[in-house]
Amino acid sequence: MPELPEAEVVRRGLARWATDAVAGALQVHDPRSLRRSPGGAEALRARLEGARLAEPARRGKFLWLPLADADEAVVVHLGMSGQILVDEPGAPDQRHLRLRLPVIAADGAARELRFVDQRIFGGWWLDALHPDDAAGGEPIPATAAHIALDPLHPLFDADAVHARLARRRSTLKRALLDQSLVSGIGNIYADEALWGARLHPERPTERMRRADTRRLMAAVQDVMRRALAVGGTSFDALYVNVDGRSGYFARSLDAYGRTGRPCRRCAEEAVESLIVREPFMNRASHRCPRCQPTPRRRRAASAVAAGAGTVLTSGLRSEGSHPRT
DNA sequence: CTCCGGCCCTGCGCGC
DNA sequence: TGCGCGCAGGGCCGGA
Predict the structure, then answer these.
(1) What is the third-level CATH fold of A4-144?
(2) Rounded mean pLDDT of A192-198?
(3) Range of weakest confidence among A79-88, A187-196, A238-247, A269-278
(4) CA-to-C1' span, A278 to B16 (A)
(5) Which residues form the Formamidopyrimidine-DNA glycosylase catalytic domain (predicted)?
(6) What is the C-alpha to C-alpha distance for residues A14 and A324, in angstroms, rounded to an integer?
(7) Catalytic residue among A58, A61, A111, A299
(8) Nucleotide closest to A181 measured between CA and C1'
(9) Would you call A173 a catalytic residue per the annotation?
(10) For A276, what's the count of Cα atoms within 13 Å in the CB-facing half-sphere?
(11) Are the C-beta atoms of residues A5 and A228 closer than 8 Å to each other?
Protein backbone atom coordinates (compact mmCIF):
# COMPACT_ATOMS: atom_id res chain seq x y z
CA MET A 1 0.00 0.00 0.00
CA PRO A 2 2.50 2.38 -1.14
CA GLU A 3 1.90 6.09 -0.94
CA LEU A 4 2.18 8.36 2.08
CA PRO A 5 -1.36 8.02 3.48
CA GLU A 6 -1.20 4.23 3.28
CA ALA A 7 2.26 4.14 4.84
CA GLU A 8 1.03 6.40 7.65
CA VAL A 9 -1.97 4.14 8.24
CA VAL A 10 0.46 1.26 8.63
CA ARG A 11 2.74 3.26 10.92
CA ARG A 12 -0.12 4.16 13.23
CA GLY A 13 -1.39 0.60 13.30
CA LEU A 14 2.08 -0.67 14.00
CA ALA A 15 2.68 1.85 16.77
CA ARG A 16 0.33 0.12 19.16
CA TRP A 17 2.14 -3.21 18.89
CA ALA A 18 5.71 -2.28 18.17
CA THR A 19 6.33 0.64 20.51
CA ASP A 20 8.28 -0.67 23.51
CA ALA A 21 7.87 -4.23 22.27
CA VAL A 22 10.68 -6.77 22.52
CA ALA A 23 11.59 -8.60 19.34
CA GLY A 24 12.01 -12.35 19.09
CA ALA A 25 13.68 -14.48 16.42
CA LEU A 26 13.08 -13.20 12.90
CA GLN A 27 11.91 -15.87 10.46
CA VAL A 28 12.91 -15.31 6.87
CA HIS A 29 10.62 -17.01 4.39
CA ASP A 30 12.12 -15.27 1.38
CA PRO A 31 15.59 -13.74 1.60
CA ARG A 32 14.85 -11.45 -1.34
CA SER A 33 12.92 -9.25 1.08
CA LEU A 34 16.24 -8.61 2.85
CA ARG A 35 18.19 -7.79 -0.31
CA ARG A 36 19.07 -4.35 0.99
CA SER A 37 19.99 -5.46 4.50
CA PRO A 38 23.76 -5.63 5.08
CA GLY A 39 24.71 -9.13 6.18
CA GLY A 40 21.34 -10.51 5.17
CA ALA A 41 19.11 -12.62 7.38
CA GLU A 42 21.78 -13.63 9.86
CA ALA A 43 22.87 -10.10 10.70
CA LEU A 44 19.34 -8.77 11.01
CA ARG A 45 18.17 -11.67 13.15
CA ALA A 46 21.15 -11.32 15.45
CA ARG A 47 20.61 -7.61 15.88
CA LEU A 48 16.87 -7.92 16.46
CA GLU A 49 16.53 -10.83 18.83
CA GLY A 50 15.88 -9.50 22.31
CA ALA A 51 16.02 -5.88 21.16
CA ARG A 52 13.50 -3.36 22.38
CA LEU A 53 11.73 -1.35 19.68
CA ALA A 54 10.78 2.31 19.86
CA GLU A 55 7.87 4.12 18.22
CA PRO A 56 7.70 3.55 14.46
CA ALA A 57 8.62 6.58 12.36
CA ARG A 58 8.03 7.59 8.76
CA ARG A 59 9.12 9.99 6.09
CA GLY A 60 7.36 9.91 2.76
CA LYS A 61 6.90 6.24 1.96
CA PHE A 62 9.78 5.06 4.16
CA LEU A 63 8.92 3.53 7.53
CA TRP A 64 11.31 2.47 10.25
CA LEU A 65 11.33 0.80 13.62
CA PRO A 66 14.02 2.42 15.75
CA LEU A 67 15.90 0.14 18.11
CA ALA A 68 15.69 1.61 21.61
CA ASP A 69 19.01 2.69 23.11
CA ALA A 70 20.81 2.56 19.77
CA ASP A 71 21.09 4.83 16.75
CA GLU A 72 19.85 2.07 14.51
CA ALA A 73 16.56 1.10 12.95
CA VAL A 74 14.88 -1.53 10.85
CA VAL A 75 13.74 0.32 7.76
CA VAL A 76 10.59 -0.98 6.11
CA HIS A 77 9.62 -0.10 2.57
CA LEU A 78 6.38 -1.48 1.20
CA GLY A 79 7.34 -1.12 -2.44
CA MET A 80 4.41 -1.72 -4.77
CA SER A 81 2.68 -4.51 -2.92
CA GLY A 82 4.02 -4.76 0.62
CA GLN A 83 1.91 -5.09 3.75
CA ILE A 84 2.69 -5.26 7.43
CA LEU A 85 0.17 -7.36 9.28
CA VAL A 86 -0.04 -7.88 13.03
CA ASP A 87 -1.24 -11.40 13.77
CA GLU A 88 -1.56 -13.66 16.73
CA PRO A 89 0.93 -16.52 16.72
CA GLY A 90 -0.54 -19.53 14.97
CA ALA A 91 -2.70 -17.51 12.57
CA PRO A 92 -2.56 -19.09 9.09
CA ASP A 93 0.35 -17.99 6.91
CA GLN A 94 -0.50 -15.53 4.16
CA ARG A 95 0.22 -16.55 0.58
CA HIS A 96 3.07 -14.08 0.09
CA LEU A 97 4.45 -14.13 3.61
CA ARG A 98 8.14 -13.16 3.36
CA LEU A 99 9.19 -12.21 6.91
CA ARG A 100 7.84 -12.93 10.36
CA LEU A 101 8.98 -11.14 13.50
CA PRO A 102 7.57 -12.40 16.79
CA VAL A 103 7.25 -9.65 19.39
CA ILE A 104 6.14 -9.33 22.98
CA ALA A 105 4.16 -6.10 23.04
CA ALA A 106 4.46 -3.54 25.82
CA ASP A 107 1.35 -4.98 27.49
CA GLY A 108 2.83 -8.48 27.42
CA ALA A 109 0.78 -9.77 24.48
CA ALA A 110 2.51 -12.08 22.00
CA ARG A 111 2.12 -11.03 18.40
CA GLU A 112 3.80 -11.47 15.03
CA LEU A 113 4.72 -8.62 12.70
CA ARG A 114 4.36 -10.18 9.27
CA PHE A 115 5.74 -8.75 6.06
CA VAL A 116 3.62 -9.89 3.14
CA ASP A 117 4.74 -8.73 -0.30
CA GLN A 118 3.58 -10.16 -3.59
CA ARG A 119 6.09 -8.50 -5.89
CA ILE A 120 9.07 -8.20 -3.52
CA PHE A 121 9.86 -4.64 -4.53
CA GLY A 122 9.65 -3.80 -0.85
CA GLY A 123 11.85 -5.02 1.98
CA TRP A 124 13.35 -4.59 5.43
CA TRP A 125 16.89 -3.53 6.18
CA LEU A 126 19.05 -2.62 9.11
CA ASP A 127 20.30 0.94 8.95
CA ALA A 128 22.03 3.61 11.01
CA LEU A 129 20.08 6.65 12.19
CA HIS A 130 21.64 10.10 11.82
CA PRO A 131 20.34 13.50 12.85
CA ASP A 132 18.86 15.43 9.92
CA ASP A 133 19.67 19.11 10.17
CA ALA A 134 17.06 19.95 7.56
CA ALA A 135 14.39 18.46 9.82
CA GLY A 136 15.25 20.01 13.16
CA GLY A 137 17.78 17.31 13.94
CA GLU A 138 15.28 14.45 13.97
CA PRO A 139 16.79 11.05 13.15
CA ILE A 140 16.70 9.74 9.59
CA PRO A 141 18.01 6.39 8.33
CA ALA A 142 21.16 6.76 6.24
CA THR A 143 19.46 5.13 3.25
CA ALA A 144 16.64 7.68 3.43
CA ALA A 145 18.86 10.73 3.85
CA HIS A 146 18.07 11.82 0.29
CA ILE A 147 14.31 11.69 0.89
CA ALA A 148 12.80 15.18 1.09
CA LEU A 149 10.37 16.29 3.77
CA ASP A 150 6.86 15.12 2.96
CA PRO A 151 3.84 17.42 2.70
CA LEU A 152 2.52 16.36 6.11
CA HIS A 153 5.80 17.02 7.93
CA PRO A 154 5.54 19.98 10.37
CA LEU A 155 8.57 21.65 8.78
CA PHE A 156 7.39 21.15 5.20
CA ASP A 157 7.90 24.36 3.22
CA ALA A 158 6.05 24.79 -0.05
CA ASP A 159 8.08 27.84 -1.02
CA ALA A 160 11.31 25.91 -0.58
CA VAL A 161 9.90 23.25 -2.89
CA HIS A 162 9.00 25.95 -5.38
CA ALA A 163 12.51 27.36 -5.42
CA ARG A 164 13.92 23.99 -6.44
CA LEU A 165 11.01 23.03 -8.69
CA ALA A 166 11.11 26.18 -10.79
CA ARG A 167 14.80 25.70 -11.43
CA ARG A 168 14.27 22.33 -13.07
CA ARG A 169 13.88 21.77 -16.74
CA SER A 170 11.35 19.01 -16.45
CA THR A 171 7.62 18.51 -16.30
CA LEU A 172 5.36 18.73 -13.32
CA LYS A 173 4.31 15.17 -12.65
CA ARG A 174 7.83 13.84 -13.02
CA ALA A 175 8.94 16.38 -10.43
CA LEU A 176 6.07 15.49 -8.09
CA LEU A 177 7.15 11.87 -8.16
CA ASP A 178 10.78 12.74 -7.39
CA GLN A 179 11.14 11.77 -3.74
CA SER A 180 14.17 13.99 -3.32
CA LEU A 181 12.09 17.09 -4.12
CA VAL A 182 8.98 16.28 -2.10
CA SER A 183 8.32 12.83 -0.72
CA GLY A 184 5.36 10.54 -0.24
CA ILE A 185 3.63 11.23 -3.56
CA GLY A 186 3.02 8.34 -5.94
CA ASN A 187 0.97 7.89 -9.07
CA ILE A 188 -2.43 8.10 -7.38
CA TYR A 189 -1.89 11.21 -5.29
CA ALA A 190 0.07 12.93 -8.05
CA ASP A 191 -2.93 12.65 -10.36
CA GLU A 192 -5.31 13.66 -7.59
CA ALA A 193 -3.28 16.70 -6.56
CA LEU A 194 -2.82 17.86 -10.16
CA TRP A 195 -6.55 17.57 -10.66
CA GLY A 196 -7.17 19.46 -7.43
CA ALA A 197 -4.85 22.28 -8.48
CA ARG A 198 -6.13 22.24 -12.11
CA LEU A 199 -2.64 21.67 -13.43
CA HIS A 200 -1.54 19.56 -16.38
CA PRO A 201 0.95 16.77 -15.58
CA GLU A 202 3.18 17.82 -18.49
CA ARG A 203 3.34 21.49 -17.54
CA PRO A 204 6.97 22.62 -17.73
CA THR A 205 8.35 23.12 -14.23
CA GLU A 206 10.11 26.30 -15.28
CA ARG A 207 6.72 27.82 -15.99
CA MET A 208 5.46 27.23 -12.46
CA ARG A 209 4.81 30.40 -10.51
CA ARG A 210 4.99 30.53 -6.75
CA ALA A 211 1.22 30.64 -6.50
CA ASP A 212 0.94 27.52 -8.68
CA THR A 213 3.28 25.56 -6.45
CA ARG A 214 1.52 26.74 -3.31
CA ARG A 215 -1.82 25.69 -4.75
CA LEU A 216 -0.42 22.35 -5.80
CA MET A 217 1.19 21.62 -2.45
CA ALA A 218 -2.02 22.63 -0.69
CA ALA A 219 -3.87 20.19 -2.95
CA VAL A 220 -1.42 17.42 -2.07
CA GLN A 221 -1.86 18.08 1.63
CA ASP A 222 -5.62 18.20 1.32
CA VAL A 223 -5.97 14.95 -0.60
CA MET A 224 -3.51 13.14 1.66
CA ARG A 225 -5.27 14.28 4.83
CA ARG A 226 -8.64 13.24 3.46
CA ALA A 227 -7.26 9.85 2.42
CA LEU A 228 -5.61 9.35 5.79
CA ALA A 229 -8.86 10.12 7.58
CA VAL A 230 -10.56 7.15 5.91
CA GLY A 231 -7.70 4.67 6.07
CA GLY A 232 -6.04 5.32 2.71
CA THR A 233 -6.74 4.05 -0.79
CA SER A 234 -7.42 0.36 -1.38
CA PHE A 235 -8.50 -1.11 -4.68
CA ASP A 236 -8.41 -4.68 -3.44
CA ALA A 237 -7.32 -6.80 -0.49
CA LEU A 238 -3.67 -6.29 -1.45
CA TYR A 239 -3.64 -2.90 0.24
CA VAL A 240 -4.66 -3.08 3.86
CA ASN A 241 -3.68 -1.83 7.28
CA VAL A 242 -2.09 -3.96 10.01
CA ASP A 243 -5.48 -5.45 10.90
CA GLY A 244 -6.13 -6.47 7.30
CA ARG A 245 -8.78 -3.81 6.80
CA SER A 246 -9.04 -1.77 3.60
CA GLY A 247 -9.21 2.03 3.40
CA TYR A 248 -12.12 3.79 1.78
CA PHE A 249 -10.52 6.59 -0.21
CA ALA A 250 -10.82 4.83 -3.56
CA ARG A 251 -14.43 5.99 -3.73
CA SER A 252 -13.33 9.60 -3.30
CA LEU A 253 -10.76 9.67 -6.09
CA ASP A 254 -11.45 12.37 -8.66
CA ALA A 255 -8.96 11.48 -11.41
CA TYR A 256 -6.96 8.29 -10.84
CA GLY A 257 -8.68 5.27 -12.35
CA ARG A 258 -11.69 7.29 -13.52
CA THR A 259 -10.97 7.01 -17.24
CA GLY A 260 -14.03 7.80 -19.32
CA ARG A 261 -16.07 8.99 -16.35
CA PRO A 262 -17.24 12.58 -15.92
CA CYS A 263 -15.02 15.10 -14.18
CA ARG A 264 -16.85 15.87 -10.94
CA ARG A 265 -15.80 19.51 -10.91
CA CYS A 266 -16.99 20.14 -14.44
CA ALA A 267 -20.20 18.27 -13.67
CA GLU A 268 -20.89 20.78 -10.89
CA GLU A 269 -20.91 23.43 -13.59
CA ALA A 270 -23.29 21.24 -15.59
CA VAL A 271 -20.57 20.54 -18.17
CA GLU A 272 -19.68 17.02 -19.15
CA SER A 273 -15.95 16.46 -19.53
CA LEU A 274 -14.61 12.91 -19.40
CA ILE A 275 -11.43 11.95 -17.56
CA VAL A 276 -8.74 10.79 -19.96
CA ARG A 277 -5.93 8.31 -19.41
CA GLU A 278 -2.60 9.06 -21.07
CA PRO A 279 0.68 7.14 -21.16
CA PHE A 280 3.27 8.34 -18.69
CA MET A 281 6.64 6.70 -18.02
CA ASN A 282 5.38 3.16 -18.72
CA ARG A 283 2.40 3.94 -16.53
CA ALA A 284 -0.51 6.34 -16.92
CA SER A 285 -1.76 9.76 -16.00
CA HIS A 286 -5.41 10.63 -15.48
CA ARG A 287 -6.74 14.13 -15.93
CA CYS A 288 -9.67 16.25 -17.01
CA PRO A 289 -9.06 17.71 -20.47
CA ARG A 290 -11.23 20.72 -19.66
CA CYS A 291 -10.00 21.91 -16.30
CA GLN A 292 -6.45 20.62 -16.75
CA PRO A 293 -5.85 21.70 -20.32
CA THR A 294 -2.77 20.86 -22.33
CA PRO A 295 -0.12 23.51 -21.76
CA ARG A 296 1.19 25.73 -24.48
CA ARG A 297 4.26 24.46 -26.20
CA ARG A 298 7.38 24.77 -24.16
CA ARG A 299 9.43 27.90 -24.69
CA ALA A 300 12.34 27.52 -27.03
CA ALA A 301 15.73 27.05 -25.41
CA SER A 302 16.89 30.44 -26.69
CA ALA A 303 13.96 32.18 -25.02
CA VAL A 304 14.79 30.46 -21.74
CA ALA A 305 18.44 31.38 -22.05
CA ALA A 306 17.48 34.99 -22.66
CA GLY A 307 15.72 34.97 -19.32
CA ALA A 308 12.38 35.76 -20.88
CA GLY A 309 9.58 35.57 -18.35
CA THR A 310 6.01 36.73 -18.30
CA VAL A 311 6.78 39.28 -21.01
CA LEU A 312 6.57 36.51 -23.57
CA THR A 313 3.28 35.01 -22.51
CA SER A 314 1.04 37.22 -24.61
CA GLY A 315 3.18 36.61 -27.63
CA LEU A 316 2.92 32.85 -27.27
CA ARG A 317 -0.78 32.79 -26.85
CA SER A 318 -1.51 32.04 -30.48
CA GLU A 319 0.65 28.94 -30.67
CA GLY A 320 -0.84 25.56 -31.42
CA SER A 321 -2.96 24.30 -28.57
CA HIS A 322 -2.23 20.58 -28.63
CA PRO A 323 1.47 20.00 -28.92
CA ARG A 324 2.86 16.98 -27.12
CA THR A 325 5.93 17.10 -24.91
C1' DC B 1 23.75 18.04 -11.75
C1' DT B 2 19.64 16.08 -14.33
C1' DC B 3 17.38 12.85 -17.20
C1' DC B 4 15.73 8.49 -18.87
C1' DG B 5 15.39 3.62 -19.63
C1' DG B 6 15.96 -0.71 -17.71
C1' DC B 7 15.49 -3.61 -14.10
C1' DC B 8 14.01 -5.76 -9.77
C1' DC B 9 9.24 -9.23 -9.17
C1' DT B 10 4.37 -11.66 -9.18
C1' DG B 11 -0.25 -12.12 -10.63
C1' DC B 12 -4.35 -10.74 -12.97
C1' DG B 13 -7.34 -9.72 -16.86
C1' DC B 14 -7.77 -9.50 -21.59
C1' DG B 15 -7.62 -10.77 -26.52
C1' DC B 16 -6.59 -14.24 -29.67
C1' DT C 1 -8.67 -24.07 -22.14
C1' DG C 2 -4.28 -22.02 -22.94
C1' DC C 3 -0.94 -18.55 -23.83
C1' DG C 4 1.25 -14.19 -24.48
C1' DC C 5 0.89 -9.48 -23.53
C1' DG C 6 0.07 -5.37 -20.97
C1' DC C 7 -0.52 -3.51 -16.69
C1' DA C 8 -0.21 -2.58 -11.45
C1' DG C 9 0.23 1.81 -5.76
C1' DG C 10 8.03 2.15 -6.15
C1' DG C 11 12.82 3.02 -6.33
C1' DC C 12 17.62 2.18 -7.61
C1' DC C 13 21.30 2.15 -10.90
C1' DG C 14 24.01 3.18 -14.89
C1' DG C 15 24.76 5.69 -18.89
C1' DA C 16 23.94 9.82 -21.64
Answers:
(1) N-terminal domain of MutM-like DNA repair proteins (3.20.190)
(2) 98
(3) A238-247
(4) 25
(5) 2-122
(6) 45
(7) A61
(8) B2
(9) no
(10) 13
(11) yes
